Amino acid sequence: MPSQRESNINDFAFDFLRSHYSARFGAKHILVDIDEQTRQGHTVQGLFSLQKEDKSLFLASLHTHNSPQIARILTRYKKNGLSMLRYASSVFVLLLVTLAGWRLGFLVAGLAVAVALAAGIFLLHSIAENKLHARQLRHLLDELKKTPADEQWLGLSISSLTFRNNYLARQLLLACERRGIGIITVGQRAKVVLMKEPRQATCRRGDFLSHYQSDARIRQALLGDTVLRVA
Questions:
Q1: Is 203 helix (H, G, I), strand (E, B) or coil?
Q2: Is 121 part of a structural domain of the chain?
Q3: Helix or strand or coil: residue 231?
């Protein structure tokens, strides 16, 4: 019997976010665009734009490009934890120091020192490896800075259960919290789970739509010809 595979977030996220913003703003007209580019050439997988009741424009972005990499890191950590190399390095130090103590005639003292050093190596290796994985996740999240929006979403093709008792998943949630990024996931049961709500950003000049190449087309579709383009 073939094993179940995670559903693809791209098959579910667009309908989910359209419904999410329709319910939130009561908007009947939400424009959804796929693979839109900023004026600097950076691509966002989904762009959701609408006009709010106060006539201002609202823009939300969906990012799924790095979903496979992030999901792979989190799933591997959930299943296997850290690498076996930390055990190998600790055992090597233990044997080396013990042997040195035995040759010098201080077997008991050498063994005690060896155990302490091996434990220290194991701990430091574990901390360093955790920090490395967390830095990899933060680097992947930094890609979202290149495609600004009122709200940003990270879509992951991964079961929400992967986030339970998972150190790296907690680090991802914390990093998204600091950056104001929302997270949605979809797993084997093809059910979208809202893991974290995004925090709305403030555009210092004009609106976020002006950062995109399709600014004029989207603005006209939402506001019509009578509204001047925001600089």
A1: coil
A2: yes
A3: coil
User: In the predicted model, is pLDDT for residue 82 greater than 70?
Assistant: no
Contact 201, 149 (CB under 8 A): yes
Q: What is the pLDDT of residue 214?
A: 93
Token pair for residue 99?
């042997």
Question: Is 53 inside a domain boundary?
Answer: no
CA distance 12 to 158: 13
Segment 104-118 shows an average pLDDT of 72
Split into its structural domains, the chain has a count of: 1
- Residue 160 one-letter amino acid: S
How far is CA 85 from each of CA 7, 81, 93, 113, 208, rounded to the nearest angstrom? Answer: 33, 12, 12, 21, 46
3-state DSSP: the chain helix, strand, coil percent, rounded to 5? 50, 20, 30
Are the CB atoms for 47 and 30 separated by under 8 Å? Answer: no
Q: Quote the pTM value.
A: 0.80
Tokens, residue 126: 């574990």
Residue 117's domain spans which residues? 79-134
Check pLDDT > 60 for residue 1. no
Query: CB under 8 Å to 181, separation ≥6 — which residues?
Result: 141, 144, 152, 153, 154, 175, 196, 198
Residue 55 belongs to a domain: no
